[in-house]
Amino acid sequence: MQQTILVVGTGFSGMWSALSAARLLDIHGKTNIDVVVLSPQPELRIRPRFYEPQVHTMMAPLDELFSAVGVKFIKGVAQQIDRDARQVNYVDEAGEVKSQAYDRLILATGSKVARPNLPGIEHAFDVDEIEHASALQAHIKSLAERPATPARNTVVIAGGGFTGIETAAELPAMLREALGNDTPVNVVVVDRGNEIGGAMGDGPRHLIAEASAELGVEWRLNNSVAAIDADGVTLTDGQRIEANTVVWTAGVKASSLTAQIPAEQDRNGRLHVERDLQVIGHNEIFATGDVAYAPVDEAGNYALMTCQHAISLGRHAGNNAAASLLGIDPVTYSQPKYVTCLDLGAWGAVYTEGWEREVKLVKDEAKSLKKTINSEWIYPPVANRAEALAAADPLIPVVA
Fold first, then answer.
1. Can you give the pTM of this predicted structure?
2. Residue 137, domain member (yes or no)
């Protein structure tokens, strides 16, 4: 009887889950188990690059890759997980509701920026999706058509975490390209922390402050955005910043589909999983990437909502979902090596290692590594069956 491993999502974890499941089935010569991927589009969107210019190019098609390894693709948007029937109901291209049965489900639906119920939040841009980041970049280009005012020349970034810092560091150059090199531009990061770059820890913090000063990025600390309108923001302490552009980067939440599985979740909506990435209490469902709250080591660290962890989580989830159908032992998810490479625009970058983020490379050296990560390491393998399946081995270490 034919069985099905259904992967929902084509982000980093979804793509690698499909390849890894196909790899293990290929090793064991199993042709009676299908690997099916359900997603709105057959492409990997390179989300870590959405702060960069030319964001509309930050995607990689997956049609040929899936075809090469025998993975089937369904274009649709998942709506409901029917656990009793073991099927996922989805809306297809024509707007019709259909269903796909599964024997094992891999939930890899990722996360979205957490937009709070804030007055005027509809005025804020974000860099969460290609379409959203493209809208921001089109808006910045259109600023040149407006009268020259401080508000036109100012961008407020709400949130000083990883995404907020990388976006803020890139924006001065984007603004000058749109408005002219002689135009005084202002990029302001509003952050509830009490130190510049505090969310990144002690190691890189002073370098983030140095880069911010050199780039002309201002920080408003111990503060949050209380309200947004077309002309600027009001902060929680009552300060007013006149700005025609506001970018929201303050936090992310796991896909809302996790709420359809009765299992423990963390504060970001991620499902608690076993070391094989099965959702606790649901042996037929695996969670991976940004929807999985997964321990990475024996020291009490957990996977972060980053592509670095999503790649390895995906390789393990796909392998282990297939293993559970084959009746063989799973591979325990473990990813003790943790690194970060933070892009700081024209200043350069900062590369750190370990959970304490010990700085190893700075400026040009780190920037060169960041470019390699962003343009090579995180992209899909080539559409060659042998090479793609080999690349999906869960035991391959992920360094970025």
1. 0.96
2. yes
